[in-house]
Amino acid sequence: MAQAVIRSCQRTMALVVPVVVTCFGLSSGGALAQKGKAPEDTLEAFDRNNFDSSARVDNKWFPLQPGNQLIYNGFTQEDEKRVPARVVQTVTDLTKVINGVRAVVVWDVDYKGGEVKESEIVFFAQDRGGDVWLLGELVELYEDGDFQGSSAWIAGMDGSMPGIMMKADPRPGTPSYSQGYAPPPFNWTDRATVEKTGQKVCVPAGCYKDVLVIVEGSKGEGPDAQQFKYYAPGVGYIKVGWRGKGEKLRETLELAEIVKLTPDALAKARAEALEIEKRAYLYGRTSPAELMKGATNATGQ
Predict the structure, then answer these.
(1) Mean pLDDT of 107-128
(2) Which of 68, 153, 182, 246 is deepest in the core (most CB within 10 A)?
(3) HEC string of the chain?
C-alpha cells in the first residue's frame, strides 16, 4: 500500500466482501490471548468503549492534523533497477465509523517511476490512552495509469481485527505488537517492535532530534525482511528503510516537504477519498465517511 502504513502491495486483486459486522468488547491495553497461538501471533485487545474523541489523533509520534500533507521521495529496488518512488500522504477532514469507533480518513498516493501505483484511504483512531489504532484500508492498484483492481479490509468484518499503529509511550524492549489482522485475500499480518529512541536524523525536509525507530515485518515477507520507520515528534514518520531479503520491502523514502493545504486543495482530497470509498464493496456495509465535526468547506465557511 502507500505509505501511511507503508507496505508494498502483495494482495490479490479482489475486494474482501463483508458478511457480518462484528463489534468486539475486549479490554484494551494488552495482547489478546488466543488459544494455541504463540505470543508473536497474538492480536491486540480492542475495546470500542475505550475511545472518546477518537478522530482527534494527536499522538506525539503519529499526529494526524486535517489538511496536512507530507510528501516523500525515494527509490524502490526492483531486481537490478532503482525506480524513483514518491508518496503523497494527505490527512483529510473526513471521518468514518468503523467497528463502533470514529476514525480519521488518510488518503495516500504511491508513485513509482512517475506513475500512480496505488491510491488508498486508511482509517486511524486514537484511544483514551493515546495509542493510535489502524482500523482498515481500501486500496486501489494501477498499472501504466490504468486501474487494475482493488482490495480492502475493515476491522470487525470478515474476520479482520484492528491493531496498534503507534503506542502512546513506545519503549525499546517491549514485546512486539500487532498492527492489525486481515485474512486472505488481503493477508495483513504486520507486527512492530520499538528499535531505538533518541536518534538524530536528517532528511530533505530538515534535521530532527529525539527520533523514534520502529521495525516492522510480516509473516508473508518472512523473518529476514524488515522495514524501518523513523518518527520525529510532532511530525510523524520522516524516513523509511529496510533490511533483509524481502523483495517487496526494498524501498527507501525520506520526507521532502510538509504542506498545509488550502481549503480548495483539501476539498479535492476529500472528494478523491470519497470516490475510493464509493467504489469499494465494503462501502455498502459501513456508514459512509462524513465531514469532520467543526471542519469548514472548500470556501472556508
Answers:
(1) 96
(2) 153
(3) CCCCCCCCCCCCCCCCCCCCECCCECCCCCEECCCCCCHHHCEECCEHHHCCCCCCECCCCCCECCCEEEEEEEEEEECCEEEEEEEEEEEEEEEEEECCEEEEEEEEEEEECCEEEEEEEEEEEECCCCCEEEEEEEEEEEECCEEEEEEEEECCECCCECEEEECCCCCCCCCCEECCEECCCCCECCEEEEEEEEEEEEECCEEEEEEEEEEEECCCCCCCCEEEEEEECCCEEEEEEEECCCHHHCEEEEEEEEEECCHHHHHHHHHHHHHHHHHCHHHHHCCCCEECCCCCCCCCC
Whole-number pLDDT of residue 272: 96
- Given this model, what pLDDT does residue 12 score? 36
Number of neighbours of residue 301 by Cβ within 10 angstroms: 6
Q: What is the pLDDT of residue 31?
A: 53
CB neighbour class for 20 (10 Å; exposed up to 12, middle 13-18, buried from 19): exposed
Tell me whether residue 297 is in a domain.
no
Residue 205 lies in a domain: yes
pTM, rounded to two decimals? 0.85
Q: Is the residue at 8 inside a domain?
A: no
Q: What is the mean pLDDT of residues 257-278?
A: 96
Report d(CA 150, CA 142) in Å as an integer. 9
Percentage of residues in the chain with pLDDT exceeding 90? 63
Indicate the number of domains in the chain.
1
Domain with 82, as residue range(s), is 31-291
Q: Which three cell numbers stand for residue 250?
A: 526494498
Give phi and psi for 253, each to the nearest 5. -140, 150
- pLDDT at 295 (0 to 100): 74
Strand partners, 252: 75
